[in-house]
Design brief:
Blueprint lengths: L1 H11 L7 E7 L18 H6 L4 E7 L5 H10 L3 H4 L13 H7 L3 E6 L16 E4 L15 H14 L9 E7 L23 E2 L6 E2 L4 H9 L5 H31 L6 E6 L27 H4 E7 L11 E7 L3 H8 L14 H5 L10 E5 L5 E6 L3 E8 L2 E8 L13 H18 L10 H9 L6
Parallel strand pairs: 1-5, 1-8, 2-10, 3-4, 3-5
Antiparallel strand pairs: 2-9, 6-7, 8-9, 11-12, 12-13, 13-14
Length: 460
Amino acid sequence: GLFAFKLFSIITGTIPKRPNLLLLTLDTLRPDHLSVYGYQRATSPSLSSLTKDSFVFENAFTVATNSGPSHATLLTGLYPAQHGLVDNGQRIKVPTISKTLSQIDYDTAGFVGYYALGEESGLDKGFENFEYHPIASHDHDEEKDDLKGFNAAIKWIKSWNKTPTNSRSPFFAWVHVQNIHESYDPPSPYNSMFGKITSPQALEGFEGEFDLRCANDLAKAWRAGILPAHFKKEAMDLYDGEIRLVDDQLGRIFAMLKSMEGYDDTVIVIASDHGEILFELYENEFYKRGPGHSARYTDASIHVPLIIKPAKINEFDKKHHIKQMVSTIDLVPTLLQLLGLPIPSDLPGVSLVNAMRQPSASPINEKVYFHEKPHGVEYIGLRTEQWKFVTKIKEGVESSLLIDLVNDPDENFNSQSIAKVREFEASLKAWKKNMGSIYNRSEITDEMRQVLKDGGYLRE
């Protein structure tokens, strides 16, 4: 790890080569719609071939179900209450991993497809190049260029590759992909790849023309109980079509890295900010009904794909599927370790590198936590292997939901175990107290600065 890097640089007088980092966040992606997580349809051949070189985390959970808070966690390693972005439209208050990497000479670029992740969010900090490319087809335009973000990222990596190798810094590129997010409206050929889609038409009981490709129409008809069954299948066909479009573009990126001989030197991460309710019905009436991700903290919303391909320099013998529960809070410490950098002592997550080196049955996390304030309603919750406990504070009124995941896997019923409620209320109280706010955290800690100087990363 870092010690070897330091020793190498002391002996040779050179700064060791550090891996590139490519973070691909695929918004609204459910793991159970990917072949590598057991899905039957061919939605993701490119990801399947990447996983031959990767670690696949089968039980990864996000800390939030809105894109702003969850992405801010993926880029800082802090919980929403700590980084300050607890709802879309707010601004982050602490430095991100891109800021740290830019301070040690990484070339940095970010490409986002959703306005809540744009410059107003502060997630552009530390990116020399930062671009926002909205998805055209989500406005149901005739002219559908849904690939602008991918094309911009590919162009940037190609231009980075033109710098002579001996004078080139490693890169960190973050590509946020919004295509899979509702509305489900991929361009041809993806709109009919998994089934024929009905044209917009009148629907009994629905005011005006019903267009399946419009998220508002779909949610309205579904919640009113007037959506014919075949439309559910078609909506899933379109969702899968979006995934396949994204997978084909990721295939282009992986092929390009291989052709420029950068694949082995690059840590590649595939993650999602949250999942999606397709047509699950939850009878507990604690959440708003789907589709979408407003039925928050059900596993369909918080269970996310997490795939990490290390660089060759990380020297892993074997790649595994890892079954223990992990959280998106664990990503930043993991990446810092893979890049040979110190992990700040105030990060709440754990590096997953040890579990990647020695997959064992011992839990990585006994509990994973989630927290955010969508539209001013505060949710705080935790999940264990067997239980899920969520509290909601809306207009000063607190309510809670306790789910026994073993005996009620469809998450329909509020369990009546008073003992468990008391235990988890105490856990959440302690967690909230420990977490504290790190708003005033310095741009780079003194401890981090010293280690970076010692390792030859930072020249003042």
